[in-house]
């Protein structure tokens, strides 16, 4: 909100300093033009505050459109992009909490460490039903707009929980696949009535080709 104010006020101070130097060096006639430019810059300070305030209000209003966009999300990457637009932070990352492993992971299941509070990056934990489901890793400046971050986190809680469950299932499937690949012997799967379903192991160890079993 205050960034445009800092910019215009800083420009005003710089122009006034230039005007003073010009006045001392070349006289008041030469500095009059610079003073008028500095005055014009000073008059833009309240306007810049209004612009910054409007930008913040529009960001908060965008949370309602984020709800509609989240309903159309079909891929994990789309969810991250939608949240990044909602927060106005293209550098946003999403981490998911896996209770079984007691650690945070990214969308590919690789472990990640949440940033410390005093760094340039910050993390906002998203909870659902009192349990952590994900964390939004964003620019630390967004901590100054806590209401916006909390609103986006609340809007995306259900979608993030669904993504966390998919990540958890993918990790469980990968562990099971690694276990099966490590088995030295054949493993057959049958239904309760004895119907053959599948086999894991080397085809060379089978009496019949896999598709004839």
Write the layout of secondary structure elements.
Blueprint: H1 3-26, H2 28-70, H3 76-87, E1 93-98, E2 103-105, E3 111-112, E4 121-128, E5 131-139, H4 146-155, H5 157-182, E6 187-190, E7 196-200
Antiparallel strand pairs: 1-2, 1-5, 2-3, 4-5, 6-7
Helix pairs in contact: 1-2, 2-3, 2-4
Structural class: alpha+beta
Helix count equals 5
Q: What characteristic shape results from the CA principal axes?
A: rod-shaped
Spatial extent as radius of gyration = 29 Å
Structural description of this entry:
The protein has helices at 3-26, 28-70, 76-87, 146-155, 157-182, and strands at 93-98, 103-105, 111-112, 121-128, 131-139, 187-190, 196-200. The protein is of the alpha+beta class and 213 residues long. The strands form two sheets. A five-stranded antiparallel sheet has the order 3-2-1-5-4. The protein has a two-stranded antiparallel sheet with strand order 6-7. It starts with a helix and ends in a 13-residue tail after the last strand. The model has no long low-confidence stretch (mean pLDDT 79).
What's the short version?
This protein is of the alpha+beta class and 213 residues long.
For the structure shown, list the relevant keywords.
single chain; 213 residues; alpha+beta; 5-stranded antiparallel beta sheet; two-stranded antiparallel sheet
């Amino acid at each position: 909100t205050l960034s445009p104010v800092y910019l215009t006020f800083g420009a005003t101070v710089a122009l006034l300093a230039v005007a003073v130097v010009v006045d001392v060096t070349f006289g008041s006639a030469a500095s009059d033009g610079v003073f008028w430019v500095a005055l014009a810059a000073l008059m833009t300070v309240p306007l810049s505050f209004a612009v910054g305030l409007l930008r913040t209000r529009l960001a908060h209003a965008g949370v309602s459109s984020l709800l509609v966009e989240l309903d159309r999300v079909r891929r994990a990457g789309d969810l991250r992009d939608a949240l990044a637009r909602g927060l106005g932070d293209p550098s946003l990352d999403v981490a998911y909490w896996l209770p079984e492993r007691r650690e945070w992971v990214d969308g590919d299941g690789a472990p990640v460490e949440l940033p410390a509070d005093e760094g340039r990056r910050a993390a906002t934990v998203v909870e659902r039903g009192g349990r952590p489901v994900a964390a939004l890793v964003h620019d630390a400046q967004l901590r100054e707009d806590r209401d916006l971050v909390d609103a986006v986190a609340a809007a995306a809680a259900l979608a993030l929980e669904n993504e966390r469950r998919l990540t958890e299932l993918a990790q469980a499937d990968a562990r099971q696949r690694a276990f099966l690949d490590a088995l030295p012997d054949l493993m057959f799967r049958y239904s309760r009535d004895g119907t053959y379903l599948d086999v894991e192991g080397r085809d060379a160890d089978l009496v019949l080709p896999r598709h004839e079993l």
